[in-house]
Amino acid sequence: MKEYQTDKLRNIALVGHQGAGKTSLAEAMLFNTGATNRLGSVMEGTTVSDYDDDEKARGLSLSTSLIPCEFEDHKINVLDAPGYTDFVAEAIAAVRVSDGLLVVIDAVAGVEVGTELAWGYADRYGLPRFVVVNKMDRENARFEATMENLRANLPAVNFVPLQLPVGAQHDFKGVIDLVAMKMRTGAGEKPEDIPADMADEVEEARLAVIEAAAENDEALLEKYFADETLTDAEILAGLNAGIMGGAVVPVFVTASTANTGIKPLMEAILKHLPGPEARGAVEADGAAGPETLEPSDAGPLAAYVFKTESDRFVGTLTYFRLFSGMMSSDTRYFNATKQEEVRIGSMEVRRGNEPQPVKVLHAGDIGAVAKLSNTHTGDTICDKDHPLQITSPDYPTPVYAVAVHPRTQADSTKMGATLTSLCANDPTLRWRYETATKETIVEGMGDMHIQVNIKRAERFGTNLDTSVPKVPYRETITKVNAAQYRHKKQTGGAGQFAEVHLRVEPRERDEGFEYANEVFGGAISQSFIPSIEKGIKQVMDQGVIAGYPVVDIRAVVYDGKEHPVDSKDIAFQIAGREVFKLAIQGANPVLLEPIMRVEVIVPDTNMGDVLGDLNTRRARVQGMDTQGNKSTVSALVPLAEMQRYANDLRSFTQGRGVYSMEFDHYEPVPSHLQQEIVEASKREAEE
Questions:
Q1: What distances in angstroms separate CA 469 from CA 165, 531, 637, 644, 647, one per listed residue?
Q2: Are 85 and 655 spatial neighbours (Cβ–Cβ below 8 Å)?
Q3: 400-470 CATH fold
Q4: What's the rounded mean pLDDT across residues 511-518?
Q5: pTM of the model
C-alpha cells in the first residue's frame, strides 16, 4: 500500500445496530475500489471484515476491523464497528479515533437501540456524520417512512437527503444525486439523466438541500433570498459548514449486498466529511500540563492505542491512530502510559486480517504493529523526550458476571495470565478473585461478551467452564453476647489445655473487626492473647452460619484459664476458634447482602414493564426522570436479584433498554430469605 499524506486521509467509523449491514457496506467499498474481486457474504463467512472464527460462526461482528479503501487518490480508513451492545467498547474505541461517522440503519427496521447508542457516541465527541439507509432492496423498504422514523426517534437535527432512491424493494436501481442532479445506477459508475416521472419529487428535494446549505452561511442566505438559487460550489460549502457544526445530517441510500449506491456514497465521504486536518487539534497531557496537538507531521509524536488483540499466529497486534507527528518502522519510541521504551518493528496497515506493510505513517493515519511489548488499549506512544498521553474514553462498567472454573490443573496454572491478557485488550472485561465465595469472577457486558472471551481463552490453551456466581454475602451480629469454651486434650504425654471467655459486640457497618483484651490478674498469659486472635480470624474467613466472612464485629477476651504445662499456642488457637463460634451463634447473627445502585434507561413505552420487574426484584426506586422519549429509573437492588438482569432487560425491551450497576452498600437479608440461604449452604457443604 502506498504512502498517504494527511490531506489525503479520511477516518470513518461504520456504526449502528447489529444487522444493519455495516460489514456488507465495507465489503462493497472494498470491491468497488478493486481491493477484492468479489463481494464477500456475512452469512457465508467470506467477508474481509469478519475474519475471526467466532464472527464467521455467529454471522455478526464481534470486534472493530480496519478496512482501508484506496479511492480517488485518497485512503479511507473504514472502521467497521460491531453493533451488538455487548461489544460496546469496540464501537466507542472506533468512534474515538474517527473524524466522521456513517450511522447505518436498516431501511425496514429504522432506528434501533444500536442506532441510538451510536448517536450518543457521536454527540459525545462532536463528530460530523451521515445517515446511510441501507438494504433499500429489502421487501417493505420505504424511504419516506424511514425518514419519518429518523426524525421521530433521533435528536432534533436537520436530516437532509442528498440522494433519492430510484425504485425500491426488489426493484431498487440506484440513486439520484441532489447536488449534481444526476442519476447513478448500480454501484454508481456513470451519471445518467433523471427520469421524467421523478422530476417533481426531485425538484422538491433539491430545494430542501439548497435551503439547508443557505441556512448555515449568512452570505449564502442573503443570496438565496435575493436569487432563490445557489451554485453547486456554494451548496457544497453551505452543506459542509452545517455538517461540521452538527446542524445538518445528510442522508444517503444504499443496498450493499446488491452493490448499489456505493461509489456515490464514497464520493460524498471525500466531499462532505472532514479529514484529520479539517477535524482540528486534540488535547493531550504533557509533562508540563495540557497540550494542544495539531494533526501535522511536524508536531510531536502522539500515537493512541485504541485496540489490541491476540492472534494465535502473529501474537499481539496493536492498532493505533497518529493524532500528531509521523512514525517509521524499525524505530524506538516511548510508551508514556507504561513509562518504558518500546521498539516498533514492521508497521502495517491491516485490511481485516491481511497485513499491508508500510515504512512510514503520517499524522492522522491508522496503523498496526505486531508483538509490541507491554502495550495495551488506551496507551500512548510518543517520543521519549516529549512524553504525551491522549485521554482514553469513558467505558461503561461491566454488568454481567460469571464464575469461571479451570477444567484441569494445567488450566488452573494458566488461568490468571490468560484472563489478565484478555482484560488488557478489552476495557469492559474484568476479572477478580472473590474471597467470600472462593470463586474467580469474570465480568463483562453480557452473556455473549463473556462466552466469546471464554472461547478465546480456549484457543490459547486455557479451558474454562462457567457458572452463575455465588452472591458474596457477609455475616455479622446484631447484639452483644458472651460465651466460654474449654479445650482439653490428653494424649499420654504433654496434653493441650486452654479456656477462653469471649464477648462479641456488633459494630457499625464497614467499621471492620476489632480485637480487645480485658484479662486481668494473669488468668491468660500475654503470650497467648495473639493465639486466640489467630483462631478467631480463621473463623471469620470461613463464617459461622452459612460459610461467608464475618464482618463488623468486636471480639473481647475478658477471662480464661491456662495450665502451666499443657497450655500452648495451638490450644489457645482452637479455644479462640470454638468460643468465637459459640458467641456468634448466640448474638442473633444475620447475613448481609450487597446492594447495587442501578440506573436503567428505556423508551417511555417500557417504563411500566421496568418498574413492575424491579418490584419483583426487591428494588427500592430512588428516582425517575424523562428526557425526550427516554425514561431513566434509579434504584437500589440486591445483587442476588440482578445476576441475569442483562438478558431479562434485553428481552422485555426488545434490546432497547440499557443499564449500569455499581456496588453501593451491604444490608441485612430479609429473615425469610436468610433461612433459605443458610439451608442451601449447609446442603452444599454436605455434598
A1: 52, 34, 17, 10, 16
A2: yes
A3: Alpha-Beta Plaits (3.30.70)
A4: 96
A5: 0.87
